[in-house]
Amino acid sequence: MKVTVLNNTLTPVQKDGVYELEKWKKKRSLPQNAYYWKIIVKMISDETGYTTEQTHGKLCQKFLLVKEEGADWVRSTTSLTTAEFETYLEDVKRWASEFLNIVLPDPNQ
């Protein structure tokens, strides 16, 4: 029997199988995503001459590459939790400062 946990209540699901329970984590927020695209990606695109889509792709390849035995893949920013996305943003900002000499503003600036 599978058990679904939602708002601290248990709901049985009638399907046989082996299931793994993990705590639900909030995905990146809409304000985080807007800041990323409108500030981070836009400023780096303006500096490098790449389109925003190209810049996003290159940033993901640089910072979200997962190397696994037999296959490398790039995580999508849509799969990141708010904490993971914040770490990603900080990594991108640090890199842009060091290698592109761009100071990217914080979201509240």
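the 2nd protein, sequnce then structure:
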Amino acid sequence: MARTACGSPGSTIPTSCSWTSDSRGSEAFAELRADPKTSSIPVVALTASVTPNDCTRIAQAGFDAFLAKPMVLREFLDTVKRLVESRRT
């Protein structure tokens, strides 16, 4: 099961996402969404898979946002800020 030290409501959890059969990122995401204690926490997928099909699958999976690897720090910080602020409204 996915564990986090910052599992309080309003936390944002970045996860590295892989779409292979042994994918741990998408499994962790599914566990977070299945648990009532963590289901509302925004999750950002960090992935090197940025083909149109990959982007569609990530969006359909229900991630709150996704960023391409290599990650640009400013883009990551802006994304987390946007997600946190949207939870406050």
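The CA atoms of residues 15 and 42 lie 11 Å apart. The domain at 13-88 is CATH 3.40.50.2300 (Rossmann fold).
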